[in-house]
Amino acid sequence: MAESAAPLMTSLQAIVGDFHVITSAVDTAPYVTDWRERYRGQARAVVRPGSTAEVAAVARVCAEHGVPIVPQGGNTGLCGGATPHAGGDEIVMQLSRLNRVRDIDTENATMTVEAGVPLAAVQHAAAEAGLLLPLSLAAEGSCAIGGNLSTNAGGTAVLRYGNARELVLGLEIVLADGRVWDGLRGLRKDNTGYDLKQLFLGSEGTLGIITAAVLKLFPRPQTSATAWVAVKDVAAAVRLLGVVRQALGDRLTGFELISADCVTLTRAQFRALPDPLPGHHWYVLLQADDASANSPLLAQVEAALADCLSDELARDAVIAQSEAQAAELWNLREHISEAQKREGPNMKHDISLPVSRIAAFLARAKEALDTALPGVRYVVFGHLGDGNLHYNLSAPVGVPSSTFIEQTSRANRIVYDLVAELGGSFSAEHGVGQMKRTEMERYKAPIELELMRRMKRALDPHGILNPGKVL
Ligand SMILES: Cc1cc2nc3c(=O)[nH]c(=O)nc-3n(C[C@H](O)[C@H](O)[C@H](O)COP(=O)(O)OP(=O)(O)OC[C@H]3O[C@@H](n4cnc5c(N)ncnc54)[C@H](O)[C@@H]3O)c2cc1C
Prior knowledge:
The structure is a single chain. The chain is α+β, with helices and mostly antiparallel strands and 471 residues long. It folds into 4 domains: 8-97, Uridine Diphospho-n-acetylenolpyruvylglucosamine Reductase, domain 2; 101-219, Uridine Diphospho-n-acetylenolpyruvylglucosamine Reductase, domain 3 (2-Layer Sandwich); 223-337, Alpha-Beta Plaits (2-Layer Sandwich); 344-429, Alpha-Beta Plaits. Helix content is 35%, strand content 20%. It is built from 17 helices and 18 strands. Helix 1 packs antiparallel against helix 3 (52-65). It starts with 7 loop residues before the first helix and ends in a 12-residue tail after the last helix. The mean pLDDT is 96. Residues 35, 70-78, 81-82, 95, 115, 137-139, 143-144, 146-148, 150-151, 153-155, 204-205, 209-210, 337-338, 429-430, 433, 466, 469 line the site of flavin-adenine dinucleotide.
C-alpha cells in the first residue's frame, strides 16, 4: 500500500485536533480493554472524530497508511469486538463525539441520530417527542446506538419489537476507503435493489463505520403491567409464555427467565435489591404494555396469571403496584451481569434455541456439565420469550475463578455442540467479536463462511476495518 506523504499522527491530528488523538498508555487504557476485562489490547492511538466528515477523513488517511481501524461506541460489547489486538498497529476510532440527534419526524415516527449517542439518550429524546424507541438493555446508560446497530443488539423488548436491525430504516456509512454512503432514508417501503443497510447491521464494524441512522419510533405505552412470577420449572415457564401470549397478543413486551441462583448472586452484590418471592427455583419477569390509557391490560394479566396459578404452572406471583415497584423488579434483572462481573471471571454462553427445546437443553446440558465440571454453578437467565438464554457458568465453591475458566474450551464444546444439535445458535445477541471466531469455523456451513468472506473482500479489500473480528 502506498505510504502517504504526511506521517499518520500528524494527519490524524490535523483532522480531529491534537486533543482528540490520545496516545499515552494511561489515557488509552479504558479504550483498549473490554467491559469484562477479558481482552486487553494496544493501539497506536485512540482517535475521536466529531463528525461524519472527520470519520471519513480519518478512514481515508488510515487506508492510505494501511492502518487498521477498530470502531468503538460505548465499549460494553461482551465479545471483545471493540478491543484492539495486542500488536498495537491499529487505531481505535472512538465515536462518542458523534452525539447529535439530527432530527425527529413525529408524523413519520422516525428519528435520525448519530452513532455516538448513548442508547438511554436516544430513548429520552424519543420520549420527549412523545414517542418510544423500544430498544432496551441493561447497558443502555453506557452503550451507544452505533454499537447497538453494529451488534444488532437484542435486549428486553425483542419479543414485541424485534432486534435492533428491525428498528432501522436508513444508515449513513463510512466505507473502508473513506467514501460516505448516505442511506438515511426514512421509508417503510423501498424495494429498489439490494437492502444494503442490512449488511452493516450486525457486522461489528468489519464492513463499514455507522455514523448515523434513521430509527423507527412507536406509540408510547399508556398502560403497563409488570409481574414477577415463581414457576414450577422451565417447562412451566415456556407454557406460561404461551398462555400469556394468547391472552395479551403483541402487548406482551418482555418475558425474562431468571434462576433463583441469579437472584441470590445479585442480591449478595447489591444488598438493596428485593427478593420478591423467596423459596422457589425459577422465576419469570414479564412486561406488558398498551398504547391505550383505558386498557384492561392489568385485569387481563391478573386473569392470565390466576389461570396459571390454578393450573400449577405458576407457584406464586407479584404484580407491581406502581412504576417504582416495576422499576425495582427490572433493577433486579438488570443487575445480574454486573453482579457476575463483581464475583469474578466466569464462562458466558449467549445462546438461542427454539423456545420449545429450552427445557430439554437445560436438562441435557446440566447432566453433561455436572460430569465434566463437578460442582459447577449455573447462572442462567435471559430473554426466554426470544429463546435466548445467558447460560453462564461460575466456579464451584472453593475453586478460584481463574482456575475454573481454564476449562472454558471444554465447557464451550459441551454447550455449543448441544445447542447446534438442537437447532440453536452459539451467539444470540452479543455477536462474535474475537471471542467466538472458533465457533464460526466449527458451526457455520462452509458456504456461509465463503459468502461472508466474499462480502468482506468486496467492501474492505485491504482488511482495514476491525480485522480479526467475526471471521
Ligand atoms: C450489563 C450489560 C448488559 C447487556 N445486555 C445486553 C442485552 O440485553 N442485549 C444485547 O444485545 N447486548 C447486551 N449487552 C452487550 C452490549 O451492551 C451490546 O452489544 C451493545 O449493543 C454494544 O454497544 P456499544 O456501543 O457498547 O458497542 P462497542 O462495545 O463499543 O462495540 C461493539 C461492536 O460494534 C462495533 N462498533 C461500535 N460502534 C460502531 C460503529 N459506529 N460503526 C461500526 N461498528 C461499530 C465495534 O467495533 C464492536 O465490534 C450487555 C452488556 C452489558 C455490559
